[in-house]
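Sample log: GPI inositol-deacylase.
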Amino acid sequence: MGGFGGSCRVAAVLVFTAWIALTAVNRLVRPVPNGCVMTYMYPTYIPISTPRNVSSDRYGIFLYHEGWKQIDFDEHVRNLNGVPVLFVPGNGGSYKQVRSLAAESFRAYQNGRLEPTFYREASSAFLVNELEGFSIPSRYGRMLDWFAVDLEGEHSAMDGRILEEHTEYVVYAIHRILDLYKESHVARSKGRVQSSDNLPSSVILVGHSMGGFVARAALVHPGLRKSAVDTVLTLSSPHQYPPIALQPSLGQFFSHVNEEWRNGYKTGLSRTGSAKLLNVVVVSVAGGIHDYQVRSKLASLDGIVPSTHGFMVGSSSMKNVWLSMDHQSILWCNQLVVQVAHTLLSMVDPLNGRPFLSPEKRVFVFAKMLQSAVPQSLSWVTPVSGVKSSNLITSGSKDASALQRKDSLSCPPSVQWTSDGLEKDLHIQLNSVTVLAMDGKRRWLDIKKLGSNCRGHFVFVTNLAPCSGVRIHLWPEKDHSSEQKEIPASKNIVEVTSKMVQIPAGPAPKQVEPGSQTEQPPPTAFLLLSPEEMSGFRFMTISVAPRPTISGRPPPAASMAVGQFFNPEEGTSAFTAARIIGSSYIPEEDHPLALNLSFSVSLGLLPVILSLRTAGCGVKPTGDQLEAEKNKLCKLRCFPPVALAWDPVSGLHIIPNIYSETLVVDSSPAFWDSHQGNERTTVLILADPHCSYEVSLRVSLSAAASRFFLLYSSQILGFMIAVMFFGLMRQSSAWEHDSSVPSILSAIESNLRLPRAFMFLCFIPVLLFLAFLVFTRGENPPFGTFLFITIMCYIVANGFTILLILSSKLIIYVAAILHVFIKRRWQSWEDGTQSTIIHNFLNLSFPFQSLKQLVLVYYFSHMPSMRTQPFAASFRSITQKKDLYKSLGDNIILLSENKQDGLEQLLPMDDSPTSVKSFTDSQLEVFDCRHGIMILHLLATLMFAPSLVAWLQRIGMGQNFPWFVDSVLCVGTIMHGIFGSPPNVSCISFKLPGRGGRDVGLSFLYLVAGYYSFVSSMALAPYSSLYALAIIGFICFASRIIETRGTTCYSGFFMNENGCAGGIIMSIECPEEVRQLIDPSASTSASDHVQTPRDLLLDAANPLSILG
C-alpha cells in the first residue's frame, strides 16, 4: 500500500465501517415492543378440489371456516353465498396466516358495525360530485368467504421465476373460486330455477409481503378474465422495488409488472381503447418504522397507481390503530385486523351483496375507514403540504363555512346531551382556557377578540371523550338583516366536536386514595381550527358534561382540557443538520400550545433523541425546595406532552408522554426518485402552555447507523462490486503497462486517494447519473443529501470489501501453510512407500490454481535453496528479449510499451515499469490478480445465493428451470473466472478514436463495468452489475479462443523432477524463430514440446495451454 498514509486511510475506513455494522446489528436485533393485542380464533381449513394439472400438483387452495364445531366440508362448500376474498401469502409464508383476518371478519359480520363513537373522528369533506349522496352503509350486506392459496412456503422474494409461477397459480385460483360459486349455485338449485344475479363476478385479493405484489402481477397477467379482480389490499408489500434487489430476473419481473400497471390506467393502449385497470382500486398498508423488511418507501404506490384509484397508509397513522409493527405482526395485530375486517365488509353493497362497482365509492370507503384526518387537521403547518392522500379528500370549490354546516359534523344521536343541564356559563377573557374538572359548565370565547393580533388559530387538547364528555360549537355573529331573521338560531349553530382527532394515550395515573390529587393524565384527543374554518362565526362554546352523565365506567382520575388561540409562527423552530447535532431551547411560560419543529434532514435518516424537562410551572421555589419536589408539583399541574411526527413518505407517528424519546420516521431520503422537500420532517409538540420546558435535541448515533444500514444495504453491495471492478482496472492497467501489479488491497487503497482518484471514481459517476435524471426523466433529487449518502455508501462499500479481502487472505494463507506442511509429510512418507495411489492423490489434491501459486510463493519465500541461479538467469533472459521482437507480430507481444495513456495519467501507478522480476514476484502478481477475481466472484455468488437457496428448496418437486437470462449470466460469470485471470488477453486490445491511436485493453472494460455498476446501484438495481461481469466473461472467452487458434506464443515455467525450476513450456504454434530465440536449445519439432503433468505449475500466460 501507499506507505503510512495508505495504511491510515485503510484503517480509518475499516474502523468506520465496523462501527456502522456493529451498531446497526446491535440495534436491529433488539426486541421491538409493538403494543399489539393478540388475535384468537378457532380455525378450520377446507381443501378445495382442483382438476389435475401441473400447478395443482404442487400448490393448493383452502377455504377458511371459523368455529370449533365439526362440519361437513362438502356441505359447507355447497352453501357458499358470501363475497370471495383470496389471501396470498408472502415469501416463505403459509396459507394458515389467513386465520386472523378471516376470524375477525366472521366476528365483525356477526356483531355488526363498530360503535360510531369508536371510529368517527375528524370528518373530512368529500367533494366529488358522484359521492355527494353516498355514505358508508349502516349495515353489512354479506359476509366474507376467505380463501387462501398454499404456495408450499416457497421463497418468492429471491427469484423472479418463482414469483412468476406464483402469479400464474393465483390467476388459476381466482378462476377456480369463481367457478366454485357457480358449481355451488347449480348444486343448490337441483333443477329449480334460481336467479344467478347475486353470484360473485370478482374476487377481492389480500396479499401479505410478496403476496401483495403477486396479487398485482395477477391483474396484468394475460390469462386473467376480464373484471375478475377489482379490489386489491396489500399488507406490508413491496411495490416500487424488490426488498432484496440482487437477482436479475426478480428486478426484471418487478419492472415489467410496474410498467404494465402504469400503462393499465392509460386510455388507448388496449384493444378496446379503454384503460385496462380503470376499475381497479389498490390500497397498500405499510408497517412503519418497525418493519425492517419492507419499508414505507417500498410499499408506496406513487407512480404506479393514480391517487384517484389507491393510496398507501402507514399502520402508525391508521385510524384506531396508531401502532408501528414488524413484518409478521401486521397479520395478527388485533387493532389492525379488526379495522381491515370492518373496512372490507363496508365495501359490500347491501342492495346486491357485491362490492361497489364504482371505484370512487371503494376508494371513499377505504379512505374513510383507514385514513386518519390528522394530516388534514394539520394543514396549517407549512411542511405538511407535501403529504399525499386520496384525491377524494380535498378542499374543492365550496367554502369552508358551507361545509361546516353539514350535519355530518354533529355528534351521534345516541350520545347527545342537551345544554339544559349545564349549571352556568363562563365568559373567558384570556386567549387560553383550562378545564380541570367535569363541572357541567359552558365556556364562551369571543373569536374576534381572542383571535386578534395574528392569533387566529385555535387548538384544543383534552382527555375527555368527545361528544360524551365535551362538545364544541361555533356561534354566528348576530345579524339584523331580514334574511337572517327568517332562519332559526339553532340552524346557524355549527357543532365541530366530531372534527376532534382521537389519539393514542399513555396509561392514566391512578389515585392513591379517593379524592386525592394525581398527576395530569395524558391527552386523548385534540382539535385544530384554522381562521378559514372559523370565518363567519363570532363565538365558540366549550361545554363540559357534568360528572353523573358518565355511566357504566368510573370517571378518570383527573379531568383535563386546555384550549388556546395562538399564532403558529410563534411556536415554529427550524433545525438544520448542524443544529440537530446538539441543541436546546427553552420555550417561555404562556408559550403556544402547539410547538412546530421543522427538521431540514429527515428523521428517517438522522433520528434524534428529543427530551423535554419541565423548567417551570408558575410555582415559585420556596427555600430549599428540591428539584424533585418541583417536578412533582409541575406534573400535578401540567399534562404530559404529546408529539406528532410525520413526513410526506411515512405518514404520521404519534408518541404520547414524550419526556424522553427517540424520534424516527420511516422515510427513505436520498434515493434517485426522491423529490425536493420530501426529506423534511415535521414534529408537532402539544405542550401545556402553563408550564415551560427545556427542549434538548441530540442525534441518536445507534439509530442513525441502523437506519443507514437498513435503507442502503442493497446499494452498498452493488457499490462493493463497483469497488472490485475499479481495483481490477488498476491491476489490469499495471499489467498492460508492464508495471508491478499491485495487490487488490493496494489497488483499492489507491482508488481512495484524494483528490484525483476519488473524484474520478466517485464524484464523476454521481454527476453523470444526476445529469441523466434531469435531462431524460425530469427527476431532481436533493443534490446535497444524495451526494452525501452516495459517498457514504461508497466508503462503507470500500470498508466491507477491504474486510472481505483481509479475511480471505488470512484463510488462504492458513490453508497454504497447512497444505505445505501436509504435503511435506506425505512426500517423505511417499518416498518410503512408493505408493502410486497416494502419488496421484497428491497431484490432484489441490486443483485451485491461485492457491498453487501461493504455495509456490511460500516455498520460494521460506526455502532459499530453491531460488536457483539458472532459473533466475532464464527468467531475466526472457524478460529482456520480449520487447526486441515486437516486429514479429502483435500477437506475440507479452509486454506493452512503457508509455502512459490518459487512464494512467488520471490514475498513476505507484511503481515504475520494471524489466526484471524474480519468479516469486511474478507468481505473486498472478496470485494478486486472481485473488481480486476470487473476491469479485464471491460477491457475485452472494447475489445469486438467495436464488440458489430458493431453488434448492424446490429440488424434486418437478419445477421449471430458472429464467434463461439468469442462466446466461451465470455462464458468463463463470467464464470470466476461468478466462479472465490474469489480465493478459491481448486480443481485447483495440483503439478508440481520440486517444492518439493508443491501445485500450482489459482495464478500460473494467472501468466501464465499474461505472455501470456504480450507476446501477444508485438506481436501486445492483443486480445489473452482473450483466457487466457476464459480458466481460464472454469477451475473455472469445479472446482466448482467438488466441489459441492464432499464432500466439505462450511461455511458462515448470518444475523438474528434482523440484528445481528450469525450462520453458512453449505452444506448438510459436514461430520457429521465436522458439529458438527464447530458448536456443529448444527443438523446432512439435514432439519436443515439454510438458510434465506431475509437476506442471500454472502457466501464467494462458490457462488454455494447459487444457490443450
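Observation: The radius of gyration is 37 Å.
Observation: The mean pLDDT is 75.
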